[in-house]
Amino acid sequence: MSAPTFGQNCRAVLPGPLRLDGGVLLSPVEIAYETYGTLDAEGTNAILVCHALTGDQYVASNHPITGKPGWWTRMIGPGKPIDPARDFVICTNVLGSCMGTSGPATVNAATGKPWGMSFPVITIRDMVRAQAMLLDHLGIGRLKAVVGGSMGGMQALSWAATFPDRVAAAVVIAATARHSAQNIAFHEVGRQAIMADPNWNGGDYYEGTPPAAGLAVARMAAHITYLSEAGLTEKFGRRLQAREAKSFGFDADFQVESYLRHQGLAFTDRFDANAYLYITRALDYFDLAEEHGGVLANAFRGAATRFCLVSFDTDWLYPTRESRAVVQALHAAGAAASFVELSSPFGHDAFLLDSPELNRVVEGFLGNGR
């Protein structure tokens, strides 16, 4: 096992084994991650930032493939709510993903070929256990906070439920304690689009042509759920593409069509189709109450973790009522929890966009106000 490294483009190969919820022992476990700032002598300033479904470890640095700034530079950076001048920030690529952490695209040491669909089924809790292994490797016993939005918020909840003694505070943004039937339905449309692509080839495409068309459609379908009707109407309405002469057909006549197609095609440059299958399935399996005897409050009984939950009024993917259900469970368990619903026209994606109100909430809760 390599010595702990800190900085950007880091990778740890941990001997494991990591026991997955499905009973499989995974070994070795590769984890790609980035760190920002310096761990203090007492090890008390570490904040784990957890990414969403299609995110990665490049939370505050330029993405190596797209060249775009990190996905949460609005939250992390000098003078921001999470400041590397004060906080030691860690962001890992989740288990099952495709930016360096063990997943279907990585090589199975036993065969010398990519895992593909032979990679074991994973859960959100498996992702959290892998992160805990990395923190052990880095010598971090306890986190000042775990922070995440969407799937990242689910990881934050799972962290507090699985390792309550290791988490002082949890910030859970635009998330839920379990996937609804509607969530599962949208994901299944995306998975079927991928598997219907003839290039998918049962997941064995790494030496050939990837199923880009199917993955693009999956991304388009999912992206609709990240937006709000008001936001789409304001940005696109029913406006047509500018062209000299319009004839009826199946080209992108409407601006919103062109936007979705661009989102889908751009996504295929940086993401793996099999990883999308695995991670969406992990999201669908997530049910924190079921993991604790069917009672959500049981997940948090005796926890000393402080919680801050944030929802957005136009988020119909994980609506406010689901955050309120988590807050009620936290209160029933005797946990310290605060909650706020913020107003935004941008739907679920609001947590990734410029939101001074969200910044103030996170900064105040973490005690990082100036």
TrEMBL record:
A GO MF term: homoserine O-acetyltransferase activity
Domain AB hydrolase-1: 46-353
Pfam families recorded: Abhydrolase_1
Transmembrane segments: none
GO terms of biological process kind: homoserine metabolic process; methionine biosynthetic process
EC number: 2.3.1.31
Family: Belongs to the AB hydrolase superfamily. MetX family.
Protein's recorded name: Homoserine O-acetyltransferase
Source organism: Sphingomonas spermidinifaciens
Organismal lineage: Bacteria, Pseudomonadati, Pseudomonadota, Alphaproteobacteria, Sphingomonadales
